[in-house]
Amino acid sequence: MYEIIPADISSPLLKNVDPLRYSQNKNPLTTSFSDEFVAIKFRYKSLTSDQSKLIIHIVKNNAVLLAKAGNNFRFAASVAGFGMLLRNSEFKGAINYNQVISLANGSIGNDVEGYRKEYISLV
Predict the structure, then answer these.
(1) What span, in angstroms and rounded, lies between the C-alpha atoms of 73 and 92?
(2) What is the pLDDT of residues 59-109, one digit of tens each?
(3) Which of helix, strand or coil describes residue 96?
(4) Percentage helix, strand, coil, to 5, in the chain?
(5) N or C: which end of the chain has fewer CB atoms below 10 A?
(6) Rounded CA gap, 120 and 101, in Å?
């Protein structure tokens, strides 16, 4: 189970929360964190342990061209774009149905069950 508490919520559960990592400096481009996109912290406790363990995963701010991204990412981008088109989202930008299909066709990969091809025919 995961508990996600939005940043603007106050709660007595938050008394021992780590200080904010990025928003203390007014100019984040001059900090030592400028190459970081986000820091994800997970804490878990084994069923046989009384101590929780902290895992911190840093996602670097390394831009990757969409054409060089992996099949799963490109396919997910196609699905997200299709959803934005269906809802006429204000965030859809210039994406269109031809781009959605092109992204999906170029990222079929190992589609053993045929779900990706089925998605393409649906679009």
Answers:
(1) 17
(2) 888 888 988 999 999 999 999 999 999 999 998 999 999 999 999 999 999
(3) coil
(4) 35, 15, 50
(5) N
(6) 6
